[in-house]
Design goal:
Blueprint lengths: L1 E6 L3 E8 L4 E9 L6 H12 L9 E6 L3 E2 L4 E2 L15 H8 L6 E6 H12 L7 E7 L3 E7 L2 E3 L15 E2 L2 E2 L6 H8 L6 H9 L3 H25 L3 E5 L6 H15 L16 E4 L6 H11 L1
Parallel strand pairs: 1-4, 4-7, 8-13, 13-14
Antiparallel strand pairs: 1-2, 2-3, 5-6, 8-9, 9-10, 11-12
Helix pairs in contact: 3-8, 4-6, 5-6, 6-7
């Protein structure tokens, strides 16, 4: 069993994962304030990790969003609306010397890469040769996978494999689809995205329009890249994917408008079609992907 951490914009999760079959056990979870002070963020991560029973000297896997120097374990968050207090900090050293059961090593990888690897190995896009993963939460994470390997260059792939570096109508993608973009457009400081989703389901036109515009815009921006990458599947995770009943219709409209039509046959006369699915694995895909990367 591999000890892993998944660090997100609102929470951190620690678990023991069997990389062979994706079995997750001994899970702990802590709330996390991505706008908080560095000491508070690291304290929450350490407290969560210390909830696991792990031998001294174990090799840990850590899935964390970018921008981040994954090889050295250095936080590079700046101008992304989260974890700004960690900029320039050696997170690898903080974990090596800060966890109760001192690790022998810490391996970092992009959380969206971990997510798609987990979904490809044991989740919604298993069996697809070429797939794209998107995580929707505080921001937009992305990954492009071919034959089990993550790619950050090639046809259809944005710079560094990051959709957050692309634009819609001259504005950053996350100015259209992200937690802060949706809250800003909705305009109620007392509401979070979960509240807006509930109001949309209850029939509020403004809430439904804000969400539709965000997810349709994402689909339009993503579709030509899906086509150029020759992807046969798109899997969506993150906290917003829990409202799949609201995400899927608008996203599918945008994808079709952009030239990548869900449910279209892969080749003429074929039974298998392009697919758009929510994350499987009970939200454990990034944990599974982190464990697989750490075990190699």
């Amino acid at each position: 069993m591999i000890p892993v951490l998944e660090i997100g914009g609102t929470h951190v999760t620690a678990a023991l994962v069997d990389p062979r079959d994706g079995r997750v056990s001994s899970r702990t979870r802590e709330p996390l304030d991505a706008d908080g002070a560095a000491d508070a963020i690291l304290a929450a991560v350490r407290h969560c990790a210390d909830g696991l029973s792990v031998p001294v000297g174990a090799r840990w896997g850590v899935a964390v969003p970018g921008p981040f120097d994954y090889a050295r374990g250095i936080a590079l968050f700046r101008g992304v609306g989260k974890f700004e207090a960690l900029y320039g900090m050696d997170v690898r050293r903080a974990l090596l010397h800060g966890l109760r059961q001192r690790p022998g090593d810490v391996v970092f990888l992009n959380d969206a890469h971990a997510f798609l690897t987990g979904e490809w190995s044991a989740g919604s896009v298993r069996g697809h040769r070429r797939a794209v993963g998107i995580t929707l939460g505080t921001g937009v994470g992305s990954a492009f996978l071919a034959d089990g390997l993550i790619h950050d260059t090639g046809p259809g792939i944005p710079p560094e494999g990051r959709m957050d570096l692309t634009e819609i109508d001259g504005r950053p993608l996350e100015a259209t689809v992200s937690r802060r973009a949706i809250l800003s457009r909705y305009g109620d400081p007392a509401a979070d995205v979960r509240d807006i989703a509930g109001r949309a389901r209850a029939g509020e036109e403004r809430a439904r329009r804000v969400l539709d515009d965000a997810f349709t815009g994402l689909g339009i921006a993503l579709a030509p890249r899906m086509a150029d990458f020759d992807a046969t599947a798109l899997v969506v995770g993150g906290s917003m994917a829990r409202s799949w009943d609201l995400v899927a219709p608008a996203l599918s409209v945008g994808l079709a408008a952009g030239g990548w039509t869900p449910d279209a046959p892969l080749v003429a006369g074929a039974r298998r079609t392009r697919t758009v699915k929510p994350a499987a694995s009970a939200g454990d895909a990034a944990l599974v992907g982190a464990a697989r990367a750490t075990a190699t």
